[in-house]
Amino acid sequence: MSDIFLSYSREDNATATRFAEAFKRAGFSVWWDQALRSGETYDEVTERALREAKAVVVLWSRTSVNSRWVRSEAKIADRHGTLMPVMIEACERPVMFELMQSADLTRWKGDENDTAWRTFVDDVRTHVGRFDPQQAAPVVMRNSRIRGLRIMLPLALLVLSGLGAWWLYSWRTPGLLHLGQRHSIAVLPFLDLTAAQADAPLAEGLAEEITNWLAQLPDLRVAARTSAFKFRDANQDVRKVGRQLNVDYIVEGSVRRGRDLIRVTVQMVSVSDGFHMWSKTFNLADADALHIEDTVSRSVAETFNTRLTKETERRWSARQSQVPGAYDLYLQGRSELKRVTREHNQRAMELFRETVEQDRDFPLAYVSLAEATMYSVSFESRSVAEVAPQVIALLDRADALSPDLPEALAVRGWLAILQYRLDDAKTYLNRSLALNPNDAEAHRRLGNLYMRTAQPRHSERQFVLASELDPMDFYTYVRHCLSLRDLADFTAAAVACKRARELDAENPWGSLATSYLDFARGQYADSLQWLERAFKLSPEDVDLLDQRVMLLLEMNLAEEAKRTLARLPEAASPQREFMQAAIAYAQEDPVSLAAALESLMQKSGTFQMNEWLELARLQSISGDLAAARKSLDRARQAADWQAAFQSRPDFFCLGTSNAISIAYIELATGDRATGMRQLDDLETTLNTFEQDGGACAGVYSLRALSRALRGDPESAVANLRKAHDKGWREARTTRREPYLQSIRNRQDFQQVLAATNRELQAEAAAASRRNQ
Description:
By secondary structure, this protein is an alpha/beta fold. It contains 36 helices and eleven strands. Strands 6, 7, 8, 9, 10 and 11 form a six-stranded mixed sheet that branches. It has a five-stranded parallel sheet with strand order 2-1-3-4-5. A hairpin with a 3-residue loop joins strand 9 (249-257) and strand 10 (261-270). The radius of gyration is 32 Å and the shape is elongated.
């Protein structure tokens, strides 16, 4: 029985000779067809040697991939678990072997001290059971203490020790990587090569662990798991994958389980040229894997001793689940959470609760459950005041298990944003990113924070960073689209929205963001079309119908708005009454308006701040200032009242701000000082927004409303004209609502209004044609 059976093409005889002789000098017995003796039957002897060999080394080349003999020998070896393929020149392997990692020795010319050759020889020694630590490349190891962790973490750390050694070697070697130069990397889901796919959780978990470990290193930009795992089932060139992920290197691997052995094969590929930078095969007995975690993790820390601190190691160890199966539930929950819809969020919460039940000491499960609870504010119309205690309790539990988790800090920052504790939010998010600059979600949330603080250019920068880290995440492009809209960069915004829709065509957010974009640039017919598409994707979302009604009313299509209202479920209240009031006001129907407002008052016992403010607005524009004053006071008494909510810079480009209606009520009911302070605060925020690049029509229309209420008609008309030039089309609001009363009779105002009406009529006609 030979250690090695060498399979090759006749055209590669010289290379095969070099391999055979080098293997022999390394102490292996080698069978290849040069060993055939005269008179022996070729087929019979070859087949017996092939089946008896401990390792079958197949040399892939442009000629061998087309050789029927080589392909057959590789297939038999694969079936017996003895296949060890080698690339000796760049070529396309047979399809069935493309998914199997091959050692890259395309540059090996016979130097037995070559790192790639020595690594492959170590692999062969391990495979044939002749591994000799004295012959292998040195690895720093220390005494380990047994810790009963699942297999995934030890394997991941072992793989990382190899990656770490390569990385350390590479930046010390001229022509490879260098300190001070930031490189990017993505870890693809590992392949489960077992027939029954029984090790799929282990394979994915390994990639997850390696991704999270590498993300701790400040010199690396690591593609987010959510993007890398989009290529779970992709059988394509890793160079193409790398270009889509916008990274320099790809790490890929496979898991194969033998009778008593787990074999993990890992390789790193350069995206620029497809060359294998590093590869390694680990053969571990199941029992042995449970004993190596401490030794290997310490080895990894020492390998990265200039970058990976002991504090980072401590935090990382505290993050892990100690219960088999809990981590798999957690990963499923994260996948559901990323879908950003009500149904998926509810499923994510169920999975995270199951995770916590299985492992009550798993900090990331508490953080993710807190995150999903936060999403319920928008998906289930829960108030921030209601969910805040639950979220804080979950995050406190996570902190008790593992202080200063970057993910926990990011969720605290998100909660602080919604509570309008914006300085606290900035502190939390910057701390999170200092600990893990590769956290795309934290960049997204910081981008959202900058939207709330009227800094659109800062916001857009964060979404760029998030998209670089997570280029396959559709929601990043949704937010990037809206930040570019705020900067009035409508062409780039349309590209970002289109990318969002391409990445997840079934999610309504892509269409909804596109609707907001078209509204901001005055393309109401297109906006309406995208809004309808969003509703078809999420027919249970009554907020989308509400927005459709408002848009139709702006286009003077009140009858179509009524038909939209009829699509509202009977149980949707008070949304129905708010829509009825808006339609009645638009149609100048005081009886129906009074009835709708009365019905709203009867249902106001459960109103939150937003609903009280909208009721106050409707009452004020209908002329009932006394009732409007009372509703405004009730809004300020609501549990979720936030004074900072009045401006909402992230709504500026929709031409909307509660500050205008509040200031009007204050001024109209005699409290001029408070009303003027309200306008001062709004204009300060508008100035901040404009100074940071904000240039959409809504900025100027809101400033026009503020200047008109102040009694500055010249400035009001000038700003309204600028708004019109950038796409402002809200002529209906302007014509009826009282905010622009002071300039309504001016000729220059009437000219702007006439031009806007012509454009609105064209948009309405386009919308009608599409509905026919």
